[in-house]
Amino acid sequence: MLPGDLLHLPDDASAAFAASVASLASRLGAAQAGSGPAVEVLEGAEPGTFTVTTPTGAGHGTAAVVRTSGSTGTPKRTALPAASLAASAAATRTYLGGDGHWLLALPLHYVAGLAVVSRALLGGTRLATLDLTRHFAPADFAAATESLRHAVGPSERLYTSLVPTQLTRLVQDPDPAVRSALLEYSAILVGGGRAPDATRAAAREAGLAVVLTYGSAETCGGCVYDGAALPGVSVRSVDGRLRLGGPMVAAGYLGDPERTAEHFVTDADAVRWYITDDLGQVSEDGTVSVSGRTDDVINTGGVKVSAQEVQRVIESVDGVQEAFVAGVAHRDWVETVAVALVVRPELRSTGPGPDLGPDADAELVRDIRAAVLTQLGRAAVPTIFSTESELPRLSNGKPDRVRIINRLRSAAGEVPVGQETSQD
């Protein structure tokens, strides 16, 4: 049904964006069918914009190439075979109980956005899009949802894919039209990071069909939903590091055979596995839990602390909207725990910020330290706080790790990355 059924947006600029999405959908559909070359979607110069190129060196059967790991500053070009995209879409369809019509709310140069287009193409369903050149607004989401529902009728399934920040803004919006729009969806896939406890609780209370996803570009997007591996997906924990296996696994990194060999293996049963940088476990009943990343372990005073676990505890404290935790250098302890903190708007006071400045509520900081001490022990208690009105983000909605860590290093008196002077 694509691209002609991609819904028209109300003004000329939005219509132009919709037309560019439709053009991409057409090219991606040809690549998936084997009648056209692979596509590589690159971020444009302006927010939300993108360009589509034909990647050189893509292997036979490759449908798309996506760039990954912008949050760590080390980009990789992941080659996604048409068969892998199809396997991913089929597994999602099976888990969700059937095909549905999709609202695109995520950038197309990231796998989560591209996967929405791919699922609509492979399912033969309608695709609506927000104008991603505009700042994400709950009112726009509600309007696009209403248009999509009107186009497909009252009984058809609607799906969308969001990052945690988008879901947080939607559940916090007081407009009844936004709440009604959220309830139209048979599934709201949420990935790209851990959703704050308060956001998850608000979504549950509202009766929203939120599905927490885990995966990456290397698996064509999410392949674990609400802790359960999708049909055809296998998950193992080897020395505490997660491996994801199945037909949705990517071919590797274009032009980087060394990194491909480090992260991709094929076993004796011809199952292809992606070796992630995530720490986690698989329980006896198959439930997958992610406890952090190999690069988010903080070594403080000889004790290893998971930044993700500290974040989880902090975000459970009343008054905290969002947190980002990392280790920064400490002359005595090797590293110390530092947190970039977003306080709920109603609790913010005025004044500039970092490192327990005037807008850092002293009582809230005491509550945070007490909660971390009780649940995780003294070594995990944060010593550096940087208060933010909102966390810096990449265009896909994920926290910009490099920028945030540089701010925390500045708050701790370190030289930010990229500003060091050579000691050679």
From TrEMBL:
Transmembrane portions of the chain: none
Q: What PROSITE patterns does the entry give? A: AMP_BINDING
Read off the InterPro entries from this record: AMP-bd_C (IPR025110), AMP-bd_C_sf (IPR045851), AMP-binding_CS (IPR020845), AMP-dep_synth/lig_dom (IPR000873), ANL_N_sf (IPR042099), ATP-dep_AMP-bd_enzyme (IPR050237)
Molecular function terms, GO-annotated:
acid-thiol ligase activity
Q: Which domain of life is it from?
A: Bacteria
Q: Which SUPFAM superfamilies match?
A: Acetyl-CoA synthetase-like
User: Known Gene3D superfamilies for this protein?
Assistant: 3.30.300.30, N-terminal domain of ligase-like
One Pfam family recorded for the sequence: AMP-binding_C
Occurrences of domain AMP-binding enzyme C-terminal (ranges): 309-398
Q: Where is the AMP-dependent synthetase/ligase domain?
A: 55-228
Q: What is this protein called?
A: AMP-dependent synthetase
Q: Which organism is it from?
A: Galactobacter caseinivorans
Phylogenetic classification of the source organism:
Bacteria, Bacillati, Actinomycetota, Actinomycetes, Micrococcales
